[in-house]
Amino acid sequence: MAIQRGGIQVIVIHAFITIDAAKREKFLEISKLIIKNSQAEEGNISYQLYEEADQPNSFVMLEEWKDLAAIQFHGETDHFKNFMDETSEMLVEPLRAERYEIARKL
Q1: C-beta separation of 37 from 77 below 8 A
Q2: Are 12 and 99 in contact (CB under 8 A)?
Q3: Spatial distance between the Cα atoms of 68 and 74, rounded to a whole number of angstroms
Q4: Per the confidence metrics, is the pTM higher than 0.70?
Q5: For residue 100, how many other CB atoms are within 10 A of its CB?
Q6: What CATH number has the domain spanning 4-101?
Q7: So where are the chain's domains?
Q8: Where is each ABM domain found (predicted)?
Q9: Once rounded to an integer, what is the mean pLDDT over residues 36-49?
Q10: What pLDDT was estimated at residue 106?
Q11: d(CA 5, CA 77)
């Protein structure tokens, strides 16, 4: 269970993704779809992709969710499943995800 913040449960996920340089453009194209569709989900607060400044083709997806139910719903969506399927062959190392429960925003 997430920690309450102003009556809203907040869970943050950092998904670290390192891809094959030759597949960069396709990855970015696929990423635009999951970002757009995920941001439209009711339980999503924010969903953004950033690239490491000193490590080309190393990205982090920053996600903020209202609660665990929202994350579970997200994991069952077609856009999430398609993203995972389509990017699996692009990875140069396994995707690593870290989940945080946020008590408050400073």
Answers
A1: yes
A2: yes
A3: 10
A4: yes
A5: 13
A6: 3.30.70.100
A7: 4-101
A8: 11-102
A9: 97
A10: 64
A11: 26
Kindly give, in sequence order, each residue whose CB lies less than 8 Å from that of residue 94, ignoring residues fewer than 6 positions away.
none
pLDDT tens for 62-104 read 999 999 999 999 999 999 999 999 999 999 999 999 999 887 6
Alpha-carbon span 45 to 64, nearest angstrom: 5
3-31 confidence digits (pLDDT tens): 444 545 699 999 999 999 999 999 999 99
What are the two backbone dihedrals, phi and then psi, of residue 3, each rounded to the nearest 5 degrees? -85, 140
Closest CA to 10 of 62, 75, 83, 78: 62
Q: How does DSSP assign 47-106, residue by residue?
A: EEEEE-TTSTTEEEEEEEESSHHHHHHHHTSHHHHHHHHHHTTTBSS--EEEEEE-S---
